Amino acid sequence: MSETTLNPDMAPDDTAPDSAPSHMQHGGHDEPTGLWSWITTVDHKRIGIMYFLTSLVFLGIGGIEALIIRLQLFAPEQALISAETYNQLFTMHGTTMIFLVAMPMAVAFFNYVVPLQIGARDVAFPRLNALSYWIYLFGGIYLNVSWFFGAAPNNSWVGYAPLTNTVYNPGLNADFWVLGLSILGVSSIMGGVNFITTIIQLRAPGMKLMRMPIFTWMTFVTSFLLVTALPVIAVALILLAFDRFFATNFFVAASGGDPVLWQHLFWIFGHPEVYILVLPAFGAISDVIPAFSRKPLFGYPVVVYAGVLIGFIGWGVWSHHMFTSGLGPIADSFFVATTMIIAIPTGVKIFNWMATMWGGRIKFNTAMNFAIGLVALFTVGGLSGIMHSSAPVDLQQHDSYFVVAHFHYVIVGGILLGMFSGLYYWFPKVTGRFMDEKLGSWHFWTTLIGFNVTFFPMHFSGMYGMPRRTWTYSSELNVGLYNQLSTYGGFILAISTVILLWNIWKSARSGAEAGSNPWGAPSLEWSIPSPPHHYNFPALPTVQSREPMWHEAERKAIEAVTLAHPEVEPEMPNPSYWPILLALGVTATWALVMTGIWWVPLIGFAYTAFCTYMWAFEDPFAKKGAEVTHG
Amino acid sequence: MRFSRLAALAGVVLLAACAGEYPQSSIAPATDFAQRIQDLYFQIFLWTMGILAVVWIVLAYILVRFRERPDSPVPEQVHGHLGLEIAWTIVPALIVVAIAVPTIQATFDTQTPHPDAIVVDVIGHQYWWEFHYPEHGGQRTANELRLPVDQPVALRIWSDDVLHSFWVPQLGGKRDANPLRAVPEGDDITYNWIFMTPQETGTFMGQCAEFCGESHAIMGMRVVVESQEDFDQWLADWDTGHAPVTETAQAEIEAEPDAAALAGPQDPAGESAAPAVTGAEAAQQALIEEGRQAFAIGGCAGCHAINGDPSAGGVLGPNLTLLGRRSTIAAGWLENTPENLERWIADPRSFKPGVLMPGVDYPSDPPSFWPATNLSPEQVRAVAAYLFSLR
Predict the structure, then answer these.
(1) pLDDT, tens digit, for every residue of A605-631?
(2) In Å, how far is B202's CA from the nearest CA of chain A?
(3) CA of A320 to nearest chain B CA: how many angstroms apart?
(4) What top-level class would CATH report for the domain A3-616?
(5) If we measure between CA atoms, which residue out of A424, A528, A558, A524 comes closest to residue A15?
(6) Number of H helices, E strands in chain A
(7) Tell me, what DSSP letter sits at residue B23?
(8) Given an 8 Å threshold on Cβ–Cβ distance, is B217 in contact with A163?
(9) Predicted ipTM?
(10) CA dihedral A324, A330, A336, A341 (to 10 degrees)
(11) Domains of chain B by start residue, with CATH
């Protein structure tokens, strides 16, 4: 397609008061409803919704943990809660926010959006997808059940050896952590496999790799990171589980083991994990910014390559988490260099987003506000990251509140804002309704203010010598004021979250109706009805450019296919209850290791094997028991 | 122009930190090591603030200039610009080089020992610090490190249990205390090191910076940097367990123990009751002696050593020699006063949860390790008086 025909303005004109009713009537009729239909669903859209809602619940739990932490730190030398409780809270806050909120929230968007963006009817392995979700849910529940045993993990989210050894941590706390993370890892690896296959195999005709929306691209890169990074932590966790349950000595220094080995294994996983978290957010705003600037993404190939490069170099920077561990100047210098190099492609992305907006016609709505917020605030986190990429400087900043400020600017300022941007952007596709812009505005501004009031002062508490993971702090440090501010900010963030939840609830029920392409956005997911049919595309459209919905001829050709009412509905895989049953088995097998009796987990294993067998011989396209009717 | 203003602003921020309001500030260097880090940090700080200013200013301009207006035209559909892409790849790359070169120089320089450095061992324990002077006669103090000013030091750091991290921000960056790995015979044990030369006298605050368990937050320390003479005197006093006693002073003590420093807190009425001074001092001396005995009876001596007290030779807990001279107790958490000592001895867990030390009415944790001390309140007061008298 030549550039001259590209016109982002024509899409909204056509946003279909005339084409919408036909499919909106249709939507909802062709899918079974009720709890059972959700439990047995293999539809990527439903699974995406479940992922999102579950991650919201865990966001609430992790947030409440954070609020208790902030209350305890409100003033120096307080003891609102015991040191042990505090240690459990900050461990679970970190573990929850990383593994049960940030990752699955990204996966929620992978699930819902990617198949629609590439013109697929589902992911490559729908039942595996459901299995990923159920394992995530059960793993998250299992981790949190530890609270009821009074034995929530208390070893910090990095679980440094040898504090996790039974000698120093004899209770169930670290057992819950080791086994819980092992369970969750299974889910993530399967998710990665699924999305790599989906993106390679299930693209619509003409959807070349270099025509894929950036969100799909970043999903692709992230999925590779998932299948390569998660096995590393799995190995580390298995070694640790052996140390704990079978008295091996992998991390026991006195027996020749090496606690620093744990750090290497953890961070070889842990740093790619940072990019697993942040790339989806980058991807989301790379779709949002062009849509609301009414311009294609500036330097599309560069943004893609920068993302791929970040994914690759992300593997070579892990020891910048270990500058204080004593690796020596040669290793330190190597990781200084790689870490500084990774700043370059990250910076390039920032510049490309800004260049996309430059010369555009920027529409400020909540989705765009959050995307702009990411550009502005992630930069702060990125730049403080440059400060501690310098090994000698990091010796002062490492494990202080300065670092806590840094990574919250990355994780909240980068990831969470990106996810919120994606939520406001894709919500109309998911529900057929807009999110409320007024509430959205409140949500955005309270988030922005609360976030900065919480985390900016932490730069100072850290610089003035407050280490992280401390239950309380001496009044002599003179950092009470900064901590007070952080606590106030935390409560503003809590309010913003309540506004978000209210907005989701309200808008899902009574938001203004949205047509198939309410934003006039360029990519393929906006060519189908909102909400989409359970089969997404009646027939596969042919894609001819990167912005198919912005080229008039192409859009018309595509919509003729995607908005059509098919004579015969495409055949979709049957619902299955084996994913949830198998997920129970995987969870139970790991959980039963806690008994410390060697044969007990074998019961879970036998059950899992049985479910796997039944799964393998289930025909997903077998003749349906009840005929699905539609009108 | 903007750059220099930023520099001035940064200077203000950094100067504010030097004012002494923040005793654990990481930007108020007192050693060559800390100064080197500070210089590097300042340089990087300016670069990053410059970048931030550029990004925010351009972003603000974009948001104002290109916001949607009723008359906004359809934007020109630009797909990219090779020259720009190359420019904003090369420029950050050059900045990275500008930061990386001094960083790597400093990385090597700060990890190179001074040839004349004295070695001091730093050993982390849950939840206290042990300091050992292998080159000065093997003194082992706890939680208050003493160093001579202007003398290069090599801190040799390890842990006796889990990971800890030695961090006294004004002295420089932190370094982890790792448990020592068993190595095949003939191989060298690997240690972690901090190399530095203290450049100012004073008392500096620090604390453990690697999460080490329940009372990680309460694992502080002090570092006293003093003149070479004071340091040598302290070492000499250490060996005897008390300050040097001249013959006249000795006679005075035997006749009339110098309890001026001790009497106050226990005996608030001491000053006004002038005629009773001698009696009060004698009583104090008796109290100290009772404390010395209670220290053994309560089992304290099983874990704690005190030079000059032959009955106290334990090695599991902090060495308490010259305890009265330390500014804090309980690993930097409590001011060193007889009252605080009493409170600490009676119920250490209320200050430091998970501490190994037993209280008067509860055993150590794990319980099989050491029983409750069962000291009466009077005995606790006596032990506190005894420990406070070690100076």
Answers:
(1) 999 999 999 999 998 887 655 444 443
(2) 16
(3) 13
(4) mainly alpha
(5) A528
(6) 21, 0
(7) T
(8) no
(9) 0.91
(10) -160
(11) 2-67+80-109 (1.10.287), 118-181+189-238 (2.60.40.420), 242-388 (1.10.760.10)
